[in-house]
Design goal:
Number of helices: 17
Strand content: 15-25%
Protein name: Aminotransferase class I/II-fold pyridoxal phosphate-dependent enzyme
Family: Belongs to the Orn/Lys/Arg decarboxylase class-I family.
Keywords: Aminotransferase, Decarboxylase, Lyase, Pyridoxal phosphate, Transferase
CATH superfamily of the largest domain: Type I PLP-dependent aspartate aminotransferase-like (Major domain)
Cofactor: pyridoxal 5'-phosphate
Strand order of the largest sheet: 4-13-12-11-9-5-6
Pfam family, one: OKR_DC_1_C
Number of strands: 24
């Protein structure tokens, strides 16, 4: 173990040692953050990053009361993305989701959401006393992943429920997008704001002809994007955009202060400014788009791997730079393929039962894409055709027995998960990534949900929200 020597003392540094060991592996990254080990940053930024780590001084402006440089940087971002106003966030898209819901809704209100939402939405419902109304999601044929909700589903739900906001995820982790233009029109006809978790779509503005339309340009009232997922920005960097006459702008502004640290990272803020400027050029993203389309075509031609493309997405718009490879034709799981890639020095972003997901950004090189292609084909060559497989479908939407905040505040007890059917959950259990709830706080646990969690775990998924295969339920 490396020991950091300072002032004559030898000190244990386990986290530093861990990161040094990882760095020395020299893995190729098809995971976030989008800067890929710093390659996406200009040299002066890397050279002086510690000098940029300052506080609010006369010369350095203030993120929470911007007057000069930071205010101008956010104005430039708003102009580029088509927003009326943009906020730089240093607590990630999670903070953005919380800010949007807190600004658009009042305690005790309902919010219409897709079931495949991120668990941070459930946390927001707990924090702000909101009740989620879930729209069930079907599966994308051939891939077994949640398909975006259809406009007709939103229309039907708004006709049945009095909600204060609609919050949808688009794109999802797999790069598949909802029809936000039609959904925005439906929501606005009901005088309800449309909020979008667009965490995986910060790069869409690079080239309108190549990527799906951004949420704001499609008519959303607010959208949050994780700059760190696909752009050259550190983890936790995010943009929050607003263009709306249905949301109190000053209320939103107040929550961006309340729900973030009072000591924001200036290197993070500077990186978001740089990321927007780089994205405006767009050339690198055009080249990446073409390279990803070609890579998918070659893999499909040379193997039984099925890449996710717009042609097989059931009419949904797709981000072609999101590399999703389906291995259901083989006797394997996405988790196994993920591990095999890691063994070959390639870090994918996530996996599920049938798919492995890689995040390519403008910081990836053509050589890295070629190495990924060779690795995937090599793995496929050694796999037998599909035989007995893990068969597991997400359970139907569970009964919301208590509002999330009430369930969270209620006395609880831990039970073995296999004994929890019929009980009300105090926690949110999900495979992470992507963090989509299987059992959400306040829902009545079912045998189907338990079986699905065990199937995911058996196949290799990491399950959050449990404690040694026990779940906390209302006492």
């Amino acid at each position: 173990m490396f020991r950091y020597e300072r002032g004559g003392f030898m000190r244990n540094t386990p986290v530093f040692d861990m990161l040094e060991r990882y760095r020395e592996l020299g893995h190729i990254s098809f995971a976030m953050p989008g800067h890929k080990g710093g390659r996406g940053f200009p040299a002066p930024f890397l050279e002086h990053i510690c000098a940029y780590d300052v506080t609010e001084l006369a010369e350095t402006d203030s993120l929470h009361a911007p007057r000069e440089a930071i205010r101008e940087a956010m104005r430039l971002a708003a102009a580029f993305y088509g927003a009326e106003e943009t906020f730089f966030l240093v607590n990630g898209s999670t903070a953005g989701i919380h800010c949007m819901l807190a600004a658009a809704c009042r305690r005790g209100g309902k919010v219409l959401v897709n079931r495949g939402c991120h668990m941070s939405l459930i946390h927001a419902c707990i924090l702000f006393g909101l009740e989620p109304v879930y729209i069930p999601q079907g599966l994308l044929e051939g891939f077994g992943v949640p398909a975006p909700v259809r406009p007709a589903q939103v229309q039907a739900a708004l006709s049945r429920h009095q909600v204060q906001a609609v919050l949808l995820t688009s794109p999802n982790f797999y790069g598949v997008c909802a029809d936000l233009e039609e959904i925005a029109a439906i929501a606005h006809a009901h005088r309800v704001p449309l909020l979008v978790d667009e965490a995986h779509g910060a790069h869409f503005a690079a080239a309108d002809a190549l990527f799906p339309k951004t949420a704001i340009r499609a008519g959303a009232d607010m959208a949050v994007q994780s700059a760190h997922k696909t752009l050259n920005a550190p983890n936790q960097s995010a943009f929050l955009h607003i263009r709306s006459d249905l949301v109190d702008r000053e209320r939103l502004r107040a929550y961006t202060v309340m729900l973030q640290t009072s000591s924001p990272s200036y290197p993070m803020v500077a990186a978001m400014d740089l990321a927007r400027a780089e994205l405006e050029d767009g050339q690198q993203w055009g080249a990446l788009y073409r390279a990803c389309v070609a890579l998918k075509a070659r893999i499909a031609a040379q193997s039984a791997i099925c890449p996710l493309t717009a042609a097989c997405a059931g009419g949904y718009a797709v981000d072609e730079t999101r590399l999703v490879f389906n291995f259901s034709a083989y006797q394997t799981t996405g988790f196994d393929v993920f591990r095999k890639l890691t063994e070959q020095g390639i870090d994918a972003e996530m996996a599920d039962l049938d798919n492995v997901v890689c995040i390519a950004t403008a910081a990836n090189t053509a050589a890295e894409l070629h190495i990924l292609e060779k690795a995937l084909l090599s793995i496929a060559e050694k796999l037998p055709p599909a035989g007995t497989r893990y068969e597991a479908a997400p359970p139907p939407v569970l009964e919301q027995a208590l509002p999330p905040a009430d369930a969270f505040d209620a006395p609880g007890v831990y039970l073995p998960l296999k004994q929890a059917a019929g009980r009300i959950s105090k926690t949110t259990a999900a495979a992470y990534p992507p963090g989509v709830p299987v059992i959400a706080c306040g829902e009545r646990v079912t045998a189907e949900a338990i079986a699905y969690l065990f199937a995911l775990q058996k196949a290799g998924a990491e399950i959050t929200g449990l404690r040694e295969e026990q779940i906390e339920v209302v006492k």
